[in-house]
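// run 5 | inverse folding | seed 20
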C-alpha cells in the first residue's frame, strides 16, 4: 500500500509526494473495502478499509507527505543528470531522484474490451463498487 511506503520512506528521512488518481488517500482498501472486514493485515485480526486508511494516515502524519489527489502520472522522463521528470494529468511537475510505484490495481477507471457492438451492454453491468459490496 502506498501509505505504508510513505511511512517506510519517512523512517529513512525521505519526504514523499503521493500522486493518486482517487480524490482521497487510501487506494484500494478505501475504494473497494471501506466498510468490509479485511483479515490479511499482519498483526491486525480484522479491520475495515477505512480503519486501515485512518491508522496509516495517523502513522505517516509526522513525515509531512504531500498529496496530489485526483491526478495520474502521464509522463516520466529519465534525465541526463540521473533525476526523473514527472508530469501529472493536472499539469503538476516534479524532478525527483527516485520514484516508488505503489500501483495496487491501478487507476480505478474502466478499461473496456475493443469489441464491435460491446457498447450496447455498457449500462447493463454493475459498477465495480456495486460488485464488491
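// decoded
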Amino acid at each position: 500500500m502506498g501509505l505504508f511506503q510513505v511511512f517506510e520512506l519517512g523512517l529513512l528521512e525521505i519526504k514523499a509526494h503521493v500522486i493518486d488518481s482517487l480524490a482521497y488517500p487510501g487506494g484500494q482498501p478505501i475504494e473497494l473495502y471501506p466498510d468490509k472486514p479485511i483479515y490479511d493485515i499482519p498483526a491486525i485480526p480484522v479491520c475495515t478499509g477505512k480503519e486501515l486508511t485512518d491508522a496509516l494516515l495517523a502513522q505517516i502524519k509526522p513525515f509531512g507527505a504531500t498529496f496530489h489527489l485526483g491526478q495520474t502520472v502521464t509522463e516520466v522522463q529519465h534525465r541526463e543528470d540521473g533525476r526523473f521528470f514527472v508530469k501529472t494529468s493536472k499539469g503538476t511537475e516534479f524532478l525527483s531522484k527516485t520514484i516508488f510505484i505503489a500501483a495496487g490495481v491501478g487507476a480505478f477507471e474502466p478499461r473496456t474490451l475493443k469489441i464491435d457492438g460491446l457498447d450496447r451492454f455498457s449500462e447493463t453491468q454493475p459498477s465495480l463498487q456495486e460488485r464488491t459490496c
